[in-house]
Amino acid sequence: MKKNNDWKERLGVTYSTNPDFAYQTDEAPEVETLPCDRQRLRVRIDRRNRGGKTVTLVEGFRGTADDLEALGKALKVRCGVGGAAKDGEIILQGDLRQKVANILQGEGYGVRVC
């Protein structure tokens, strides 16, 4: 059953009386999440455009947005810091490269520290 807000998905589409009409969207299907041992994650720090604050970036995750959010939440909880998971990368506050790399290796991910 569709949610009541499915009209938002059709914004910009005109009404059609054709019974065979199908809406076309430019959305790409989400890729399946690769197993941990096949993931190759890069852990690095970044200071650009962050007001001089240091953040740890985890890049290279291949999978669904829900799995990225779950991994980001697990890293934030285990490191005891704030952060976000969006656009295919996980952002953690502070320089936690080695700690994050150790956690990810313990989970079975392939990790490269830059």
Question: What does this 3D model show about the protein?
Answer:
The protein is an alpha+beta fold and 114 residues long. The protein has a single domain (30-113), classed as Translation Initiation Factor Eif1 (2-Layer Sandwich), CATH 3.30.780. It has 2 helices and 5 strands. β3 (83-86) and β4 (89-93) form a beta hairpin. The chain is elongated, with a radius of gyration of 19 Å. One of its GO terms (biological process) is regulation of translation. Pfam families: SUI1. Keywords: Initiation factor, Protein biosynthesis, Translation regulation. Residues 48-108 form the SUI1 domain.
- Based on CA atoms alone, the radius of gyration comes out at 19 Å
Q: H/E element string?
A: EEHEEHE
Question: What number of structural domains do the residues give?
Answer: 1
**CATH class membership:** Alpha Beta
Distance between the termini: 46 Å
Provide the helix percentage: 10-25%
The residue ranges in which pLDDT falls below 50 over 5 or more consecutive positions are none
| Helix run count | 2
